[in-house]
Design brief:
The protein has one domain. With 308 residues, it is an alpha+beta fold. The longest helix has 22 residues.
């Protein structure tokens, strides 16, 4: 409010009417990445709420040396089945009063529904990152990671790996090597990091397009994708759960992996409206039924680190 000169009347807020803006203040949302780093190979097999998919696996056939005149050993290949149940669900349920909708020149229900959809994605990603890292293969985490060499430090409780601008690339290469030692496919590999780690990359020589591997500078924006380094497509997420580590540091469980490591299925995504029976208004509600499962733990790396 502009102040009036001393001794003169102040009409602002008395006779001058208030004006409600027809433009909403922009709202910021965390970028979600779950759809970029998981596969949906079994989503089509999910039909009803509570259903589960029984996934058959391929057995490993044993190779034996052949000796003339020696009887051949017969192998009966066996492989366990994997059960993938869909057991998680989130919903929203809000009401927009008819008077509010009538008196507003903003499409309130559309705006609120859009916010609810974004919050659903954020809710899923937050729970996802807080859960899947623990299912990484035992050889893909801890201070002695590496299925062949046990020679790579991926961090452990009480001793997370310190990351700074000078060593971020070498530790990412170590994560890639851990995947190599598990024979994970080179294609479809990803690395998801918190913003502070992405900041180290952007401040380093990696911002040069020649190091990104795809002809585009690392200094890019959009959809959480930072760029490409070696086999890794890099993603930024602000939805990791920070851990108050026993060693006194705030640490993060970053994820490195290959697209076949985790499968995701959305079973039901329903949005509807109905007239309230208790008041004059429209109820908007949405239901999202979904789940994920780590199917190839050997293709998932838990890199436990902190900002140095």
């Amino acid at each position: 409010m502009i102040q009036a000169a001393s001794g003169t009347p102040q009409y602002s807020g008395v006779f001058v009417p208030e004006i409600w803006s027809g433009t909403l203040l922009v709202k910021f949302y965390a970028t979600t990445t779950i759809s970029a780093i998981t596969n949906t190979d079994y989503e089509g097999d999910i039909k009803d709420v509570g259903d589960k998919v029984i996934i058959r696996t391929t057995p490993s056939i044993t190779m034996r040396p052949y000796v003339k005149n020696q009887p051949l050993q017969i192998e009966r290949p066996e492989a366990p089945n994997i059960t993938f149940p869909v057991e998680q669900a989130t919903y929203f349920n809000f009401i927009c009063d008819d008077i509010d909708a009538y008196q507003s020149d903003i499409a309130l229900m559309d705006d609120w529904s859009g916010d609810a959809a974004e919050q659903m994605k954020i809710y899923k990603d937050t729970a996802f990152f807080a859960d899947v890292y623990s299912d990484a293969h035992a050889s893909n985490k801890g201070a002695t990671a590496g299925a062949k060499t046990s020679g790579y430090n991926m961090g452990a409780a009480g001793a997370p790996v310190e990351i700074d601008q000078t060593n971020v690339l070498s530790h990412m290469i170590n994560c890639d090597t851990v995947l190599y030692e598990q024979d994970a496919p080179e294609t479809g590999r990803y690395f998801v990091m918190p913003p502070w780690m992405a900041g180290f990359i952007k401040q380093s020589d990696l911002k040069d397009a020649s190091l990104s591997g795809d002809g585009t500078s690392m200094m890019r924006h959009g959809n959480g994708r930072l760029g490409q380094i070696g086999n890794f497509t890099l993603y930024i997420s602000n939805l990791f759960t920070a851990v108050a580590d026993g060693g006194g540091e705030t640490a993060w469980h970053c994820l490195a992996g290959q697209i076949k490591a985790i499968t995701f299925a959305a079973q039901l995504n329903k949005l509807g409206t109905l007239t309230s029976e208790q008041t004059f208004g429209t109820i908007v509600r949405g239901l999202d039924v979904y789940d994920w499962k780590v199917l190839k733990p050997e293709a998932l790396v838990d890199f436990y680190c902190y900002k140095g």
